[in-house]
Each structure stands twice: as C-alpha cells, then as structure tokens.
Write the structure tokens for this entry.
Amino acid sequence: MTSLKKIAACLIFGSAIAATGLAAAQAPQFFRIGTGGTAGTYYPIGGLIANAISGSGEKGVQGLVATAVASNGSVANINAIKAGSMESGFSQSDVAYWAHTGTGLFKDQGKVEDLRLLATLYPETIHLVAAEGSGIESVADLKGKRVSLDEPGSGTIVDARLVLGAFGLTEDDVEAEYLKPGPAGDRLRDGALDAYFFVGGYPTGAISELATSSGISLVPIKGPEIDKLLAEYSFFSKDTVPAETYSGVGETETIAVAAQWVTSAKVDEELVYKIVDVMWNDASRAALDAGHAKGKLIKLETATIGLGIPLHPGAERYYREKGLLK
C-alpha cells in the first residue's frame, strides 16, 4: 500500500471511530420515576422532577431522558426498582423502611437490601374523606360503613389498616373496598361509598374537585389511640390540614408520613450525583414552586430528614458537600 493510500485508510478508520464514539455519547440514558395514580400528588410531582432533570431541561443532566410513570404507588414502585423495571420511584417513608428491613408489609417478601434514598420530599397527609352529612366524625364511626382502603400494593392501604387497628377495627369491621382515589371519589359522589382513605400531599386534585362538586368532610385522625400509634411507629407524625384547603372543610387534625424518592444501589453513583445536583438547582426550584402546591415544600434543607433507609452514595456525596450531613 502506498503512503498516500495508508494515510487515506487511517483517516477513514479514524473518522469511523470518531463517529461511533459520538453516537455512543449522544445515546440517551433513560431514567424512569414510578409515581402513583394520575389523580394523586405523586404523578404531577414526578412530572415536574422528570422535566427538571432531563437533558432537554434548562439545566438538566445532559443525555438523560427522565419520565414519570403512573403506577399503583409505593409498594409497586419498590418492587419495580427491585425487579429492574424502574430506575427510581416515590414511596412513603414507612413503606421504604419496611422494604429495606424486610419487616411490616415486606415481612413475607424479604429485604430489599439495595433500596437507597435520593431525597425526602414532603409530608404526606393521611386523608379520611367522608361524604358530606355522613355522620362519620371519628375513625371509630367507620364500623359497618362502606370504606375504600385503596388498591393492594399501595402505601395507603398499609396505613389505613394501621389507623383502623389503632381504634380496634379491622377490614372485617367495615365493608371494605379497594379502589384508587379517583374511582373512590366517584363512588362517594354517587352515594355508593361512605368514606375512603388517601395518603398524599394536600391539596390533591381529586379531593378538591369532589369537595367543590358535591361536598365532603374530612374525618379527624386524632385522640389517645393515635398518640399510641405515633409512639409505636416513629415514621408517623402529627399533621393538620388548614381550613379551606378543600372547599367548605374546616381545619382538620390528622397524621402524616413522608414522601421519599428512592432508587437502587445498582444505579451509577456519578449519574445519581448529577441528578441530585440538578434537582436542587435554581431552575428546578422555580419549576417546583410554580408547578404544584406541594412543590414548595420540597426543600434541600429537609432532603435528608427522616431517612429510614441509606442514602445512595451519589446522593450522600452531594449532601455532604452541601453540609447537610456530618
């Protein structure tokens, strides 16, 4: 081969390698966020975060394509992360703790040892929604009533059972149904249901619409029974839904858990570091503040409270750099 031909061959070979490298560098990396039902709070919050961290965002992670995926909630999201069919998801703090330790709801399934935390997001309030004029003024009044506990696989059903148990009730003491918040609200409006449980940030769209269209009452979750429950389960905390959060509904005492964003220890540390970094930049902050009432409660200074499970190494490195961890 002449020198000229050798040079040409090298140029062609070099160009092919460069093109291949460029294609690989530009290949999108997908990052799914399991949320909840479309009528709840997880889904819109997940959409805001996905838009913020995606590479198409103002200051997103380059090459990352994040999507919010509707699901059955906390338990379903953790199982999807464990199975590798979801890179991350939202979970109630109690469900995440049970999964990682193999206790509570997960005592028969074993530990999800690779479950890791990206951030604690905001308080999730336990709503006990009743039909207006139902006469249900306490959890104890649910006995013999038609009550939806949410779908199997959701975090809500776990907490509903604990709340009922605090008052000496089980599913056998009520006419239990297992519906998502949207269908449960429809049945309440139609007079086919007396009450339903929902765990999520307030205000939630489905309950707001129901309060405006047909009227509701929020049943207080309080009393010595609840004080005992809080002493037994540290992931619960007292909470109050302010008056007129839902049209015509006064201030209501209740309890809450925390919404958390979880992932797998198998997800790359550098990728998680970049995701968490973008999560707390000014553009993401503005999007959260403008996008949803609960978005304003998602703050860097509370991202590491009530952890319950280990932080992902990428997230831990970021929070240590910010001085949030000792």
